[in-house]
Amino acid sequence: MAEAKQQFESLSLEFNQQQNSLNELITARSQLETQFQENKIVLTEFESLNEDSKIYKLTGPILLPQDYSEAKMNVSKRIEFIEGEISRVETKISDEEKAMEATRQKLLAIRAQMA
């Protein structure tokens, strides 16, 4: 009985750690989605500009001129990178949810034994 209680406490702690990890991953996913949407808006703005429009990039406290095609390419690459990161985080979220479900099942089994 004492061993089951100790195992139950250990699994409860593991489950709480998994919940915290899942919450961090969900927060990261949300931040990536925000960045993705912001960059999509920038790309949409580029579509409405002429290729000879002046574009500036904020580098520290200074605005530096940037070539239209280079700026558009940078934003497109950033969007690709963010999409990859979103996919990676979603995979981690899925894996964490599966691990949490397995831990939850173990907790329920131990609780049933203790009853």
TrEMBL record:
Coiled coil, from the record: 1-35, 79-113
Family: Belongs to the prefoldin subunit beta family.
Keywords on record: Chaperone, Coiled coil
Protein name, UniProt field: Prefoldin subunit 6
GO CC terms: cytoplasm; prefoldin complex
GO molecular function, one term: protein-folding chaperone binding
A GO biological process held by the record: positive regulation of transcription elongation by RNA polymerase II
Gene3D superfamilies per record: 1.10.287.370
